[in-house]
Amino acid sequence: MKLLHKVNFRSDTIKHAIILIICYLIKVNYFNFSTGMPLNKISYSVVTVSVLFLLLTLLYKLRKWYIVVSFAVTTIMFGDLLYFRYFNDFLSVKLMNQATFVGSVTSIIVSIFKPTDLILFIDIIVYMVLTKNKNKLELFAHKLSFILTLIILPTVILSISFSSIYTGIKKYEFFNYHVYDLISLDTENGNLTNEEKNAVVDEMRSDYRDSFSGNYFGLAADKRNVYVVQIESLQNALIGKYYNGQEITPNINKLLKEDSIYFDHYYQMIGKGNTSDAEFTTLNSLYAITTGNTYNVYENNNFYGMPWILRENGYSATSYHGYEAGFWNRENIYPQEGFELSHFEPDYILGEKIVFGLDDHDFFEQTLPMLKNQEGKNFNFLVTLSSHKPFTLPEDKKWIQLDEADENFFGHYIQSVHYMDDAFGKFIEGLKEEGLYEDSIIVFYGDHFGIGMEDEVALERMENFLGVPYTFEEMFNIPLVFHIPGSGVSVTKDITGGQIDLLPTLLNLLGIENNYLTLGQDLLNSENGFVATQTFMEKGSFIDDEKVFQIARDGVFENSTAYTRDTHEPVDIASCRAGYEYAIKRINLSKKITESDSVMDIVTELMNKNSKYEIE
Ligand code: GP9
Ligand code: MN
């Protein structure tokens, strides 16, 4: 009492404090609302507001410092918000050292930003106005602020320490998330124990291979050329579709009519490395890590995926991409992946740029002569670019007549996929003209979604176009096609599959016995499909042939959601327990293999144990 009595309450002191607290409430609730915090977690906002208030009381004498610190905090918040719209998650310090990642995101940042996001800076602006004519903020007498600090600090610490709310709060609450992200940095490494390694070796030698039914084994074994084309942002939603009577992907559709095995429930499996993760998982049949991007963090690892395996089986291995060699660290990782030769933008004549690199038409056209000159058996990996966000094409390359209402991300996406399809169609024609087509297997798939959840207008138009809700399952769905000229096989398979399954499936078609490390499965010889996702739908989430299970953001199994894959009806969560556990187990196993650089160990073990090698 005595203490409080001494406190000098100025009339504007209380008023200013109230104004600022209101600003904090507006700021924090805008942030939480925009980053999907459920209403029952609203108490977490109290923690964020308390920490901001704490900051104010601690720095009440240091106006400049308060502004600097607040600005830094708000900038991170702002970054989180934009990142969340794109990735359904907050920023992580583990991703900060990746310049290429930032480069890729800045190209779309403008489209993600909403003017209302400036609300996040409201408290700083108001504070500056309120304290404009003062050298120091005298919002509170020193002792009062000290008392408040003593009350608030333990409250905040206690509130975040209770284990019952800890899982949730570290995912949703701004300060807790970042503190946890920082302190968990060193606990991420895992080593593969000998037992785990032996279990993987055993699984790779037995699993489906014991019950291998031989479907389509060697269907493309006699083909001299293997072309694997990863297509930028190609979603399955546009395949076979018309926009106001205009066929969006006529060339792909034509390929699907004959000699094609088409997987229409195939899914992206990217981590935080977008295109590069699509490549990584496809080439290696491993999960991408999410604590960075695999191409950067594990650039010195020894891998043994598609390029190495095909080389071992007599093919050459070359990659082609019409952008900078350094982007996604490709120039360093490709030799580790097993590519003997890699072509990037400098190897091409750069015409008019589309988005930020070589036009797909130029890319395919100029790649053809390189393919023509190849001798023997060849594996060629082509990564396209023109259908990249923000889907901007020069006027004379927009060939789809769009309605006024679709002059947005959605319409532009259709436009650029149509443009890519034309380039791809010309490539197929080129292969025919050069006499390469008949002697080839052409594999193509999308790297990841084009339309994300961040643009509400595009989302609404997409739903309207599809006639169904635009869920993550729909967003993740990309096409996978094995086009094998002259095979006489034309079939659509609806087994659930993901990028991790491409390598084992391809090996089967090429008639290469799979004695390698592949964590995915051969989709042509498997009964049940399963895809474990890690981003957008976080670790523990999965898609199988019947359902989609999305782990709750607080990581609590019981709070999760599940619905049927095709009709979106709710599914009993309890029935998802096994899939949830399996998803986590597989991702953790893959992570350990990558982190301990054990691929070659396992492959060597497999080669030693393999009877074929024992006989030799
Ligand atoms: C760049 C290209 C695009 O080389 O692959 O990458 P993204 O931004 O889609 O991850
Ligand atoms: Mn991409």
Entry summary:
The protein has 616 residues and is α/β, with parallel strands linked by helices.
What do these coordinates show?
With 616 residues, this protein is α/β, with parallel strands linked by helices. It has two domains: 185 residues, no CATH class; 422 residues, Alkaline Phosphatase, subunit A, CATH 3.40.720.10. The chain has 24 helices and 15 strands. The strands form three sheets. Strands 1, 4, 5, 6, 7, 8, 9, 10 and 11 form a nine-stranded mixed sheet that branches. A hairpin with a 2-residue loop joins strand 2 and strand 3. Helix 2 runs antiparallel to helix 6 and helix 10 crosses helix 23. The N and C termini lie far apart (91 Å). (2R)-2,3-dihydroxypropyl phosphate binds next to helix 13.
Topology:
Blueprint: H1 2-6, H2 11-34, H3 43-58, H4 63-87, H5 99-112, H6 122-130, H7 142-161, H8 163-172, H9 174-183, H10 194-205, H11 207-210, E1 225-231, E2 242-243, E3 246-247, H12 250-257, E4 260-267, H13 274-284, H14 294-297, H15 306-312, E5 315-321, H16 330-337, E6 341-343, H17 360-372, E7 377-383, H18 409-433, E8 440-446, H19 456-466, H20 472-476, E9 477-483, E10 491-493, E11 497-498, H21 502-509, E12 530-532, E13 542-544, E14 547-550, E15 561-564, H22 577-595, H23 599-609, H24 611-615
Parallel strand pairs: 1-7, 1-8, 4-10, 4-11, 5-6, 5-7
Antiparallel strand pairs: 2-3, 4-9, 8-9, 12-13, 13-14, 14-15
Helix pairs in contact: 2-3, 2-6, 3-7, 8-9, 10-23, 17-18
The chain binds (2R)-2,3-dihydroxypropyl phosphate and manganese (II) ion.
